[in-house]
Structure to design on (1213 residues):
């Protein structure tokens, strides 16, 4: 039985492949903890309602809305953020594709789109445009880079298939 | 100025691309300072009223709260706490009165943002509610007066004539008289008059506005997601009574701006809070709070045209009312600058324009991607289309009969030069296959197409300064205060420096704006940076190049030598040491308009224009409209970076698509009912047109840097009226109010069929 | 958010014991998407959350009966339902509805139980499940009970769950050769909350409709059956009954004006989409369509 009065606890999880621990407030979401405890800024709270996808992280292989996910639920999980995609200086296929197609402007939503692209291509290596839109429909880009983003996903799919 | 270039004109990927795709790009949002407090505001729950009392006791009693700050506390550190670019009308926190829903009244400071938020919810404000005015036309004559007294700021050369006033909601009126419109109307074959309106919308930059202020030792440092670092420094120094050298304003990359982050937004409050707390204070707005901070002007536009039997517009009368909300922000400039293009990109001999900036009890309105132009184009291009259809003239042909060509005088009295209005219209018609048969659908699904064209003058007169340093190893640093908020300015400025100095792109760095380091720039707004800062960087780089030549001469090298740059430094300084510093200020020529006639022989250094064509499909059983194809063609002069330019055009069009069909701030019973992306719907990926194309015409802005001109807004101009025009083409109904919702189309179809739908 | 405690019981029984009365400041949390949206602005300020994530795995499973009936545990994520071959085979209209329900990220987290317990009329599965004659399994301190999905919704954001009760799962009866369809209609942006959701299910006896179930969501205060539509269609050929069914639906549904449209407009939409959803069901493969 857990102590239900304490509003803080220590969580342990795997962050971008490394085991980590953090002392968190139970009222903190995973995006806040990534920023405050680990200095990772790629997951960002913008709309605060799970609509824009700027806060996306991948938890146990599934993309989730960081700003609506209690950090406590990361306890024991494996969390991947956009910072965990590149291998040293070598960018992932998705990251390369977003640069090569010019699929971002201000860049604030970009990590979310890249992580959703990874989720899509992990589940469907050869998606058609409808499937691409389906996966990305929960991410918003106020700069309106959608046409280039769809191109980026197609390019990333090709890069991954040929890798 | 064009000539052959090697770096300029090539589509280099954005310099900050790797940082953005790895999540490591710097935004002020990600900055944390040691010992920092978080600020959360308590905001007005009414639109207009006197504050009887503010009970902060419960907030102060909340464990973890450091300070609870009200307007009275602000006055203790900043005795005249009013700011604003056109009028000093906006209090840092409400004093005595609130003038709009969501106005900040008090702030809680705490080390834990959750504590600050909770305590802010516990502040109780008692109001004496006052009647409010929300409509711009009503505000002209309303008994409700938003401000007892208007105090012009006197900041800008083009707004020097603003005078203080009492007992009016009119912040600025602009009048233009060109030819004799009354006479032309009296003699006209046909006269048309229509009224159009636009709704209140918001920029919703995804990095919500944020400022972190740190005041200590009689110096202030403010880290902020601003588009206007130099202006923020100026305004904070004025509030403090300190020299500008004691105020340092730093920005990073911005997660979007679109005009939301020009002038002072969060900075003055953050500054005052840090002075009170004696600690760094982070004031980060939420998406919701942005809706209370700055918006786009709602507007009403009554437009009338006199037309002869050949379809030539002989006169136009324009009356435009701009709803500036509770604080003027840059609204007066929107009224004036946009005002003089209200008759459209047409060659009309007789024009009269009356443009009014009004205060109301809505959240303040300012600049949003187009500085009022999209509101005007909505009206004049809807109106123009109606005239063409009623006269039985093809809409493209009608526009071409009247288009304003280079060498002709625009209504403001300035001769048009390098304005490719006709060329973009031609290119658009070509891409749309306008002269080919068009499938108009059948049954309950009908198809139509429409075009529209708009234009804009640059904001003037404005100044940009730049420093270009060549290091001893031959690398280069560009110091400028242009803020890269996604438009790719860092890359463009680097390309210009690279071109002038013949230094490869990978050896050039562009410094993020920091007013202690990067010199003055008026602001990153109004598509001015490529032209103004582009020139400043070009001139500063040329200055550095001259100094390098002088250095070579000094150490005895012959003209035309090919000694590498690092070698020059070694020979001069005995080792890899020293630096060459080039610098420049740039301000284009300008003549302010005459106040009574609105005329100026030199109103703008360049003209921007954009044309949009759409094909739509309308479900006549529901009014639901789908955009099958959208084409945007702009005059961009010569592109510094074609790929970046193309994405600017399509991105602007996507944004305007949202303003056209779904985005609308709704105020009911004095409350803003939808300040969130859940209920304020911006376009998502399923809202994109099935096919979208962006293009530009081959052109040359002869007085621009390497032939370039601004382009960030041009993609917005034609979108809204093109859609309305296509809807009329498809199903024969005309929508005159934005946004164009399916229900509005359906209701219009009902009226057309002679059956009225009830209002419930 | 105000600080709170978190309990993570390992069994349904323990969870029920912890939840207690509704006003005790204790709230259950499953996926948490809807709950977080109410807690962030302070609309809900619970003292303690009881996480259901650790309860028995049966409540996260999808089981198929021999006749094609389905049991879907309340803790099953919407994404698992969407990707379930069993759901696609036996209730393809559910799979189809899930494809356009919020987005992949939310479906990865949101659970069937939370979706139903939220009581929000704008959600997609309630009308679909009503049309499929599904039942909700409910457990409380006094034991278990089953009710029809349509009986779960009492008023806007209010369900008939007693304090201390939890949804444990949903059974969807075998659909046999029944045809069904769902249409979601948004009036602002494409991925907006719906202005209208309409679901229908029926058997075909030759070209005559039998045992019709019709349900509406989003436009009304609660998701509910449209009995007048069922009556208008029962025993008729679809082609003869579409107009009457649409008129009946528009007359029966109690709709309100809101940001997604006026009441008058929504009645027009209901009229049009009632015909469209029946036609869509007619064109669907047996059991539904994807």
């Amino acid at each position: 039985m857990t102590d239900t009065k304490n509003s803080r606890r220590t969580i342990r999880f795997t962050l971008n492949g490394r085991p980590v621990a953090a002392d968190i407030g139970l009222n903190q979401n995973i995006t806040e903890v990534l920023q405050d405890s680990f200095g990772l800024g790629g997951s960002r709270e913008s709309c605060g309602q799970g609509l824009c996808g700027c806060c996306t992280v991948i938890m146990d292989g599934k993309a989730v809305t960081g700003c609506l996910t209690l950090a406590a639920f990361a306890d024991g999980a494996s969390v991947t953020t956009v910072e965990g995609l590149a291998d040293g200086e070598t960018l992932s296929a998705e990251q390369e594709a977003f640069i090569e197609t010019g699929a971002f402007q201000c860049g604030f939503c970009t990590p979310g789109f890249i992580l959703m692209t990874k989720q899509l291509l992990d589940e469907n290596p050869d998606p058609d445009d409808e499937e691409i839109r389906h996966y990305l429909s929960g991410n918003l880009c106020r700069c309106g880079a959608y046409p280039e983003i769809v191109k980026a996903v197609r390019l990333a799919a090709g890069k991954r298939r040929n890798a | 100025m064009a000539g052959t270039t090697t770096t300029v004109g090539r589509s280099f990927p954005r310099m900050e691309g790797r940082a953005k795709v790895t999540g490591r790009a710097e935004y002020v949002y990600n900055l944390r300072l040691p010992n920092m407090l978080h600020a959360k505001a308590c905001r007005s729950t009414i639109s207009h009223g006197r504050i009887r009392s503010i009970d902060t006791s419960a907030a102060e009693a909340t464990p973890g709260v450091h300070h609870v700050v009200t307007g009275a506390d602000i006055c203790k550190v900043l005795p005249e706490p009013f700011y604003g670019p056109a009028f000093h009308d906006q209090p840092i926190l409400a004093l005595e009165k609130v003038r709009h829903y969501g106005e900040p009244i008090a702030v809680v400071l705490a080390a834990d943002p959750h504590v600050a938020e909770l305590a802010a919810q516990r502040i109780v404000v008692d109001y004496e509610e006052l009647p409010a005015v929300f409509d711009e036309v009503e505000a002209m004559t309303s008994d409700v007066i938003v401000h007892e007294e208007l105090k012009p700021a006197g900041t800008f050369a083009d707004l020097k004539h603003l005078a203080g006033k009492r007992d009016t909601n009119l912040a600025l009126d602009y009048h233009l008289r060109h030819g004799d419109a009354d006479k032309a109307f009296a003699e006209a074959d046909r006269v048309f008059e229509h009224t159009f309106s636009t709704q209140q919308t918001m920029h919703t930059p995804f990095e919500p506005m944020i400022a972190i202020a740190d005041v200590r030792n009689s110096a202030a440092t403010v880290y902020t997601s601003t588009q206007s670092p130099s202006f923020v420094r100026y305004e904070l120094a004025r509030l403090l009574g300190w020299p500008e050298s004691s105020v340092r304003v730093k920005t990073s990359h911005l997660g979007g701006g679109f005009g939301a982050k020009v002038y002072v937004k969060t900075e003055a409050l953050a500054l005052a809070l840090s002075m009170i707390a004696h600690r760094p204070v982070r004031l980060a707005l939420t998406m919701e709070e942005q809706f209370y901070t700055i918006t786009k002007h709602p507007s009403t536009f009554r437009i009338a045209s006199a037309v002869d039997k050949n379809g030539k517009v002989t006169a136009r009368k324009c009356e435009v009312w701009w709803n500036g909300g509770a604080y003027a922000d840059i609204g007066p400039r929107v009224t004036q600058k946009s005002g003089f293009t209200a008759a459209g990109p047409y060659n009309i001999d007789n024009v009269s324009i009356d443009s009014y900036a009004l205060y109301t009890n809505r959240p303040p309105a300012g600049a949003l991607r187009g500085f009022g132009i999209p509101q005007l184009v909505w009206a004049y291009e809807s109106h123009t289309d109606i005239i063409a259809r009623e006269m039985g003239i093809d809409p493209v042909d009608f526009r071409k009969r009247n288009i304003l060509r280079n060498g002709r005088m625009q209504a403001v009295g300035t001769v048009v030069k390098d304005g490719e209005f006709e060329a973009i219209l031609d290119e658009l018609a070509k891409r749309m296959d306008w002269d080919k048969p068009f499938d108009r659908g059948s049954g309950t699904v009908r198809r139509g197409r429409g075009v529209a064209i708009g234009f804009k003058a640059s904001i003037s007169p404005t100044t940009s300064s730049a420093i270009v340093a060549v290091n001893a190893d031959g690398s280069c640093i560009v110091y400028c205060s242009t803020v890269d908020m996604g438009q790719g300015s860092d890359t463009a400025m680097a390309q210009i420096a690279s071109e002038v100095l013949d230094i490869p792109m990978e050896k050039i760095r562009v410094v993020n704006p920091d007013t202690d380091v990067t010199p003055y720039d008026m602001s990153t707004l109004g598509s001015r940076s490529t032209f103004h800062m582009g020139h400043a960087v070009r001139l500063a780089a040329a200055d550095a190049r001259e100094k390098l030549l002088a250095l070579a001469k000094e150490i005895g090298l012959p003209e035309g030598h090919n000694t590498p740059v690092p070698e020059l430094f070694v020979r001069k300084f005995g080792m890899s040491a020293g630096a060459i510093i080039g610098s420049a200020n740039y301000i284009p020529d300008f003549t302010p308009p005459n106040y009574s006639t609105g005329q100026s022989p030199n109103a703008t250094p360049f003209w921007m224009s954009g044309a949009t064509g759409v094909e739509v499909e309308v479900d006549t059983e529901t009014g639901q409209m789908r955009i099958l194809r959208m084409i945007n063609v702009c005059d961009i002069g010569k592109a510094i970076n074609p790929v970046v330019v193309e994405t600017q055009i399509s991105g602007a069009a996507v944004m305007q698509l949202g303003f056209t069909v779904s985005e609308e701030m709704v105020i009911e019973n004095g409350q803003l009912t939808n300040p969130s992306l859940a209920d304020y719907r911006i376009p998502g990926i399923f809202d994109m047109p099935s096919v979208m194309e962006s293009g530009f015409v081959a052109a040359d802005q002869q007085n621009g840097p390497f032939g370039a001109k601004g382009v960030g807004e041009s993609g917005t101009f034609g979108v809204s009226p093109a859609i309305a025009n296509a809807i009329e083409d498809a199903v024969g109904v005309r929508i005159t109010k934005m946004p164009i919702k399916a229900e509005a189309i359906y209701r219009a179809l009902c009226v057309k069929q002679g059956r009225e739908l009830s209002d419930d | 958010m105000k600080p709170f405690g978190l309990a993570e019981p390992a069994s349904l029984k323990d969870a029920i014991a912890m939840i207690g009365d509704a006003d005790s400041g204790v709230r259950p949390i499953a996926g948490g998407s809807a709950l977080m949206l109410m807690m962030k602005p302070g609309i809900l300020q619970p003292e303690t959350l009881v996480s259901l994530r650790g309860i028995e795995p049966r409540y996260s499973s999808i089981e198929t009966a021999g006749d094609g009936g389905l049991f879907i545990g309340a803790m099953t994520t919407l994404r698992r339902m969407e990707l379930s071959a069993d759901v696609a085979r036996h209730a393809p209209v559910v799979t189809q509805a899930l494809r356009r329900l919020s987005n992949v990220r939310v479906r990865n987290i949101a659970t069937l139980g939370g979706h139903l317990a939220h009581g929000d009329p704008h959600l997609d599965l309630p009308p679909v499940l009503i049309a499929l004659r599904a039942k909700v399994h409910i457990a409380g301190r006094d034991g278990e009970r089953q009710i029809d999905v349509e009986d779960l919704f009492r008023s806007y954001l209010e369900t008939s769950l007693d304090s201390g009760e939890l949804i444990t799962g949903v059974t969807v009866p075998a659909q046999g050769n029944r045809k069904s369809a769902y249409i979601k209609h948004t009036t602002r942006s494409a991925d907006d909350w719906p202005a209208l959701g309409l679901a229908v299910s029926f058997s075909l006896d030759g070209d005559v409709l039998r045992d019709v179930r019709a349900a509406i969501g989003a436009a009304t205060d609660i998701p509910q059956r449209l009995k007048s539509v069922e009556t208008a269609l029962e025993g008729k050929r679809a082609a003869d009954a579409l107009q009457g069914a649409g008129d009946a639906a528009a007359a029966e549904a109690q709709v309100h004006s809101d940001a997604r449209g006026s009441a008058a407009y929504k009645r027009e939409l209901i009229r049009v989409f009632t015909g469209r959803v029946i036609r869509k069901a007619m064109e669907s493969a047996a059991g539904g369509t994807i």
Remarks:
- The radius of gyration of chain B is 27 Å.
- The first strand of chain B starts at residue 37 and ends at 43.
- Chain B has 19 helices and 32 strands.
- The CA atoms of residues 328 and 691 of chain B lie 39 Å apart.
